[in-house]
User: What shape does this take?
Amino acid sequence: MEKIKVGIVGLGRLGKVHAKNLAENVQGCELVAACSFVQEELAYAVAELGVKETYNEYEKMVESPSIDAVFIVSPSGFHCEQIKLAMENGKHVFSEKPIGLGIDEIKETQSVIQSYPDQVFMLGFMRRYDDSYQYAKQLVDNGELGELTLMRCYSIDPSSGMESFVKFAGASDSGGLFMDMSIHDIDLVRWFMKKEVRRVWAIGKNAAYPELDEVGELETGAAMMQLENQAMAILIAGRNCHHGYHVETELIGTKGMLRVAAVPEKNLVTVMNEQGVVRACSQDFPERFREAFVSEAKEFIDCIKEKRQPEVSAYDGLQSTKVALACKKSFETNELVTLEDE
Ligand code: NAI
Assistant: This one.
């Protein structure tokens, strides 16, 4: 079978990870085109990844007959427009999370996606493709925990990335902590619980990094949620983790509980020395989710080849964004926010 030819837009913090995977680690596809505003990034794609076509304008790349599929890893505010344009040009589309920053633009994008049912659309909630989360999901779906009553989720970026984060946040609108970071946990809550979120209360504080105030971002935020069946979720998100990249999830059910990455270990090595018994910590998202990023890209390519749609849909994008926006509103108004049925 012919290889699926892919063009990528965005070669920043995450774009480079996806581009390398598509060029080297995912079978059945070829990374032929790349689009970025940054000339050095395009030069890297040509020299290191063997990309043949480079673009400064996304509109030109999606018109190229050389590509079958587009990988969108640009800043979040561009996703909706770029998804629609790719769909209208007959391309399969993988888009990073969040699908968009506003409900109206997402609904419009969702209807464009639905009008091209023969083209694959996938959203980058890569935690669903992580081995540990898949294992936990199987246990939960097999009823090992009984009925789920509560989830507790931590997603905290490393303090070492603060400088690059402030640059990222200053250069484009990330949607804020709940949209940019907690959205992964919101997706996990919906995925594990199979229920929608009904009410949220969110709070937050900047303490060590007042420069985050200037870019409208939060250092630490927390949200408490009630789902439609009265199950509960507690989300903690942040940008100031001194030991590394801390992503931890706890599920409590009527028959038992489980934790994914209760201690965010780098690997299985324990060092015993003058500092004591030391376990290194995973340092950033490319390291912790290295395999998950490969697995989700493989799934996207397999879906195109096998003419099927992936599990993560535009609807998941819409629902998770609604919850993230409710958290933002709750934080800004300091009120409990109820999500309406639509
Ligand atoms: P970044 O700021 O490091 O890189 C952005 C890239 O997009 C740059 O190459 C820039 O030249 C390019 N770009 C910006 N606007 C463009 C436009 N209009 N047309 C073409 N290229 C354009 O951003 P980063 O951190 O790589 O994030 C990108 C996306 O990935 C965001 O939506 C973010 O939410 C998502 N992300 C997801 C993660 C995950 O865990 N799944 C982790 C990090 C980011």
Remarks:
- The mean pLDDT is 96.
